[in-house]
Structure formats: C-alpha cells, structure tokens
Design brief:
The protein is mainly beta. The chain is 0% helix and 57% strand.
Length: 94
C-alpha cells in the first residue's frame, strides 16, 4: 500500500473505503478514537492514519502526517453508502 499517493487527493470526491487495518469495515464506529487507520481505493490503496470523532451521522477523520500523530494533513468525512459500503470524502475547511 502506498503511504504517499502518486496522484492528488481530490476534495469532494467520495473514495471507497477498502478496509480498516486490513479488516473489512462493518460500522463507522470502528474508526472512532485517538488513533485509527483505513485504506481508500486510490492508486492501488492509500492508507489514511489519524484520529476521529462522531459528527451526527458521519465520522470526521483528521489525517495526520506522522504515522497517525502529528499535524493535520486533511480532514475526511466518512459515511455509510450501503449495507457494506463506506466512503471517505476529503473536505476543505474541515
């Protein structure tokens, strides 16, 4: 899996979440916490590491620059798109 994406992440595009630390995602609550990671379907798989919080029916995820800690790189909105489908959308301005 690539840590630095060869292609830019585009704001407003919903990327499919492939897994959470190698396991299938079954509920957004699995991504809540001070340190979490997930992989999106972007150029062979891009691992997003950071922390998150509940934001109504979604999860707001703060991607960090140093193995899930450090300064914020991006803010993502994580949503359920179906029974077994979840997406991550980079949002501008958090």
């Amino acid at each position: 899996m690539n840590r630095t994406p060869p292609a830019p992440i585009i704001s407003g595009i919903a990327y499919r979440i492939l897994d959470v630390a190698g396991q299938p995602l079954t509920d957004l609550d699995e991504l809540l916490g001070a340190k979490a990671e997930f992989t999106i379907d972007h150029d062979g798989g891009y691992v997003v590491r950071g922390s998150s919080r509940k934001d109504e029916d979604t999860v707001k995820f703060y991607e960090k620059d140093s193995d899930g800690i450090g300064k914020d790189l991006r803010v993502w909105r994580l949503e359920r798109e179906g029974p077994k489908a979840f997406t991550a959308t980079h949002v501008v301005g958090g």
